């Protein structure tokens, strides 16, 4: 496989078109109210890559009692790496506990920042391991990280809702 | 010490027998390329194909030697000190101003050094701002803006020629208006006649678009501004490096350009301002080297251009820029323009043959700069750029600091190939052939 094929693995190109979890987001206030009625804390984060304009808005629904990431929806525009990353993120993190999701995110970030030195662990990362090739392209690490940074911020936002309600 | 010393290292390569008569050919361009060491390298296993001169151009050896020679032989602060090096540095610095002024058809004192075109535009905007606060006395009154006054820009501006005016409007209470862009990426001149009116105090527009490659009708826009007594600021960043520009003949009030886009170093640019206008303008940056007498409470300022050049100047960069101007002059700006026009048309006609590629801006046969920005259906510009880079081809991707224009043309980002005097037709053809492989690689079928 050429470097370029390592970067743009088939699964990435497929996800960039399939866009799992992507859709029109209802107004946040409505989603928050609806979530509260079903014991869910809903928060979102909008991230933009200023160097190229890639955008992702990711919305997290976190169980009020069991800390489970029950739903992830997003909307965005950008390169195949950023959009595929959002799609794979929703498949990978949905259903995990907040703690598990954070651990996986840390692993993903460490691998991406390793400049190709850390082999992605498929056991941990699943399909997100396909972004291993990105770590050799420092200019593209931000693209792959964009939805994950949005997830991190939205998760924190959802957790703060609990803090306020107590 | 002679004032021509900084340009003594000009390579003989571009000196054709009759530079005014003989158009550049690929053979000439191959010789020109020998003066640019950076072009002779391998990127990702392929010879570098540099098609990003619209963002920043490469430097010929003579420019780098001029800068090195300055540091090796005459480095000193200018306009202060009486020792020999200080005198030599000042002479070389001012000789550079004279040379750059002549290159754009200005008087020497009409050229103010800045860090780049962005700073030059901000200089004008903040001078207006200061005049609006009452600084500069009666002479500066014509630059004073307030509620009811209008600043007019266009929808195709680089952010550098938009945001300083947005901010000036916010500071002064003036209103910012804009001339819209048509579907083909050219200005709507019919609408312009409605936008520019009796309240217009300032009209700022680009000479050539860094995205669409459109060259705007300066005479028509200047005439429109003159009808209402408005001042004209011309962003000449994409034209001064690529075609003969005479700011006096164009009759604009101000013009700006950047050295690094015209074979010069980074960190140097210039503001052209008509002498009588500069004379009435209050300064933007203040401090040393721009004053006559200073009290604890107040100061008197020098005449232009020194009034606008506070602090230690970009001496080596100015001298190196003069060497770049020598290189361009000896090649001949008409020849540079004609060669790039040919490359521009080759780009446009080649892009038209690639399925799914949509050119932004005017099509084949219409005058344009030697650049082309485009959209590849189904493939994001960032991915297009990555694919080309893998083949050693450097292009610009993104919004090229022109978000409103991209929005107007219905895209969020585009890919841009921009040429210069050192690009060959083979490079353009290689770029086009590689671009044709992009959609299939990303699985976009049509």
Automatic annotation (TrEMBL), chain A:
A GO BP annotation: iron-sulfur cluster assembly
A Pfam family recorded for this sequence: NifU_N
Highest taxon above the source species: Bacteria
Protein name: SUF system NifU family Fe-S cluster assembly protein
Signal peptide residues on this chain, from the entry's feature table: none
Transmembrane parts of this sequence: none
Domain (NIF system FeS cluster assembly NifU N-terminal): residue spans on this chain: 45-143
GO molecular function: iron ion binding; iron-sulfur cluster binding
UniProt cross-references to NCBIfam families, sorted A to Z: SUF_scaf_2
Organism: Cryobacterium glaciale
Lineage summary: Bacteria, Bacillati, Actinomycetota, Actinomycetes, Micrococcales
UniProtKB/TrEMBL annotation, chain B:
Single GO molecular function: pyridoxal phosphate binding
Reactions it catalyzes: (sulfur carrier)-H + L-cysteine = (sulfur carrier)-SH + L-alanine
PROSITE patterns assigned: AA_TRANSFER_CLASS_5
EC number annotated for this UniProt entry: 2.8.1.7
InterPro entries in alphabetical order: Aminotrans_V_dom, Aminotrans_V_PyrdxlP_BS, Cys_dSase_SufS, PyrdxlP-dep_Trfase, PyrdxlP-dep_Trfase_major, PyrdxlP-dep_Trfase_small
Keywords attached to this entry: Pyridoxal phosphate, Transferase
The protein's enzyme class: transferase
Protein name: Cysteine desulfurase
Organism encoding this protein: Cryobacterium glaciale
């Amino acid at each position: 496989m050429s470097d370029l094929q390592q970067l743009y693995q088939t699964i990435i190109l497929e996800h960039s078109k399939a866009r799992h979890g992507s859709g029109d987001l209802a107004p946040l206030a409505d989603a928050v109210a609806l979530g509260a009625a079903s014991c869910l804390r809903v928060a979102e984060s909008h991230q933009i890559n200023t160097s190229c304009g890639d955008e992702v808005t990711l919305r997290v629904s976190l169980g009020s009692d069991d800390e489970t990431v029950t739903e992830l929806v997003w909307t965005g525009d950008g390169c195949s790496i950023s959009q595929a990353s959002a799609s794979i993120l929703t498949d990978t993190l949905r259903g995990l506990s907040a703690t598990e999701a954070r651990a996986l995110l840390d692993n993903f970030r460490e691998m991406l920042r390793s400049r190709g030195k850390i082999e992605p662990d498929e056991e941990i990362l699943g399909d997100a391991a396909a972004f291993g090739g990105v770590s050799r392209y420092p200019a593209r690490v931000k693209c792959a990280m964009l939805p994950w940074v949005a997830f991190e911020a939205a998760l924190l936002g959802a957790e703060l809702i609990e803090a306020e309600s107590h | 010490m002679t004032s021509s010393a900084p340009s003594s290292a000009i390579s003989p390569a571009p000196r054709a027998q009759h530079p005014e008569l003989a158009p550049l050919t690929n053979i000439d361009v191959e010789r020109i390329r020998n003066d640019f060491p950076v072009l002779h390298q391998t990127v990702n296993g392929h010879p570098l194909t540099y098609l990003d001169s619209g963002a920043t151009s490469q430097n010929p050896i003579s420019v780098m030697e001029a800068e090195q020679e300055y540091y090796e032989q005459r480095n000193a602060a200018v306009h202060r000190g009486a020792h020999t090096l200080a005198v030599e540095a000042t002479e070389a610095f001012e000789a550079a101003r004279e040379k750059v002024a002549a290159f754009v058809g200005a008087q020497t004192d009409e050229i103010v050094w800045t860090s780049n075109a962005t700073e030059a535009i901000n200089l004008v905007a903040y001078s207006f701002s200061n005049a609006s606060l009452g600084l500069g006395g009666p002479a500066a009154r014509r630059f004073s803006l307030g509620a009811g006054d209008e600043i007019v820009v266009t929808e195709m501006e680089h952010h550098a020629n938009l945001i300083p005016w947005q901010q000036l409007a916010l500071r002064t209470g003036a209103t910012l208006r804009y001339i819209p862009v048509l579907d083909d990426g050219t200005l709507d001149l019919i609408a312009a006649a409605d936008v520019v009116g009796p309240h217009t105090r300032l009209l700022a527009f680009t000479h050539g678009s860094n995205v669409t490659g459109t060259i705007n009708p300066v005479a028509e826009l200047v005439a429109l501004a003159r009808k209402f007594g408005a001042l004209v600021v011309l962003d000449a960043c994409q034209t001064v490096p690529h075609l003969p520009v005479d700011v006096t003949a164009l009759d604009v009030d101000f013009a700006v350009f950047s050295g690094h886009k015209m074979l010069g170093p980074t960190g140097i640019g210039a503001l052209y301002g008509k002498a009588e206008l500069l004379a009435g303008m209050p300064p933007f940056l203040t401090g040393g080297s721009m004053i006559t007498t200073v009290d604890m409470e107040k100061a008197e300022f020098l005449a232009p251009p020194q009034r606008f050049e506070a602090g230690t100047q970009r001496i080596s960069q100015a001298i190196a820029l003069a060497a770049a101007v020598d290189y361009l002059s000896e090649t001949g700006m008409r020849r540079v323009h004609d060669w790039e026009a040919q490359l521009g048309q080759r780009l446009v006609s080649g892009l038209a043959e690639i399925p799914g590629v949509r050119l932004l801006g005017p099509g084949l046969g219409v005058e344009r700069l030697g650049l082309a920005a485009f959209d590849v259906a189904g493939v994001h510009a960032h991915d297009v750029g990555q694919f080309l880079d893998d083949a050693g081809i450097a292009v610009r991707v993104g919004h090229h600091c022109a978000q409103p224009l991209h929005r107007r043309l219905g895209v969020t980002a585009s890919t841009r190939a921009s040429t210069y005097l050192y690009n060959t037709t083979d490079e353009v053809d290689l770029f086009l052939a590689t671009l044709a492989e992009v959609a299939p690689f990303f699985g976009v079928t049509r």
